[in-house]
Amino acid sequence: MMRVLRFVCRSLYRVPLPGRVLIGVLLGLAVGFTFRQREMAFGWTTADFGVLAGQYVQLLTALATPLIFFAIIDAFVRTEISGRQGVRMIVICLGNVAVAFAIGLTILNYWHPGESWKQRFAEPAPQSVSQDAGAASAKAPKVPETKGSLSPLDLMKSYVPKSIAHPFLDNMVLTVAVLAIFIGLALRTLRSTEDAELVVAITTFDQFIIASFQIVLKLLLWLIELAPIAIFLAVANVIGASGWATFQMMGVFLLTVCAGLAIHSLIYYPLSIWVLTGRRPSQFFGQGGGAILTGLSLNSSLATAPLTLEALRRMGVSDSSARLSACVGTNFNNDGVTLYEAITALFVAQAIGLEMQIGEQLAILLAALVGSMGIAGIPNSGLIILALVLKAAKLPEQAIEIAIPLVYSVDFLVARLRSAVNVMGDLQVAILLDGPVKTEEPKTLNEAEA
Fold first, then answer.
1. Based on the number of CB atoms within 10 Å of its own CB, is 131 exposed (0-12), middle (13-18) or buried (19 or more)?
2. Which residue from 103, 81, 72 is spatially nearest to 372, judged by alpha carbons?
3. 16-127+154-434: CATH class
4. Cα–Cα distance, 289 to 308 (Å, whole number)
5. What b/e string do you get for 280-290 counting C-beta neighbours within 10 Å, with b at 16 or more?
6. CB atoms within 10 A of CB 115
7. Could you tell me what percent of the chain has a pLDDT over 70?
8. Per-residue DSSP letters for 223-250?
9. Tens digits of per-residue pLDDT, 293-307?
10. How far apart are CA 27 and CA 433, in angstroms?
11. pTM for the complete prediction?
12. pLDDT of residue 270
């Protein structure tokens, strides 16, 4: 029996992660529909699976906060952005993010798709362990009372930490990101010092940041390998509680996310290129199609960088613009991840009936932006930072415990769409950096004779 079990485990491990996630989803569906909320064995039900899945999410969140902190400082350590091209790249990336935010806010505020999940959030939440006695209890998620829009001063006060450790303890992603940015800027400033001892100390600190980032990343990648098991538990719990209604709910969510990504990538990107540089959409999709499809299959825009560079070369984009976008800008230009995280957070907020004014919505969008910085090369990065963005939206813990299993069950599909959008963003930024297509001026008669 043990030999058979080892053989099955080894065989499953050889299957790529997306395949294992799909297997986890299918097994979760089977267990959920078979047992629903009945006892399976030893007093266990599918609700207990939800508790275990919640612990996985909690551990993922605990590691994601230091990942973002070290990733941003690591970007300052490794990346050299200077001069006019660097400023232009940052302006273009900010413009792309602004458009992505406008698309997300428009879809969520005019369509109100999150309201389709209200019935699910009105049901009892998955059982959770009490901190006092460890007794299981089923409670509906508490929806915070909305007292109108928070003032800008109140918003600022909510993100100012009480101590350096506070943002890490409470997973305050915005505050952690700002702290990392200031540390990175201070590090850049001190590099010009002539103090030999300080130069050695800064070099040592640089190595510490690089090593810390890689260590936290490795831990998270190990944790991601367990995602199929967590997704199996989460799907079994959700299906056991809601049954077929789950598919209708996820259909609305998928349609919302796909609509946002499609408008941004299939309309905004080619249109901006055509208007600002004169390159036709047919050239953008024709020459860049191979890189876009590779990003879709590999689920990593950074791993697709060689093909992105080759596609830009075929388009006639200069090497300097191509390298700046595909090798440096890809750390900041993650429109696919940013748009997905923001839509998901606002979607869940609508589901629990939490009315947010524009200032609070922009705070969520900003959290999604800083959460996506520096993680372009990490597979399933959207899955890693989703819990942090939901916490930054100040959503109730029980609402997050219900929403994340639902979203994770389809993340293996949405992740590929996000990566494809990120690759298209790298292509677009490089083309805009290069400027309008240069056409040869007609030669004069004397030049022609010469």
1. exposed
2. 72
3. mainly alpha
4. 10
5. eeebbeebbee
6. 13
7. 72
8. HHHTHHHHHHHHHHHHHHHHTTHHHHHH
9. 877 766 667 667 778
10. 48
11. 0.66
12. 95
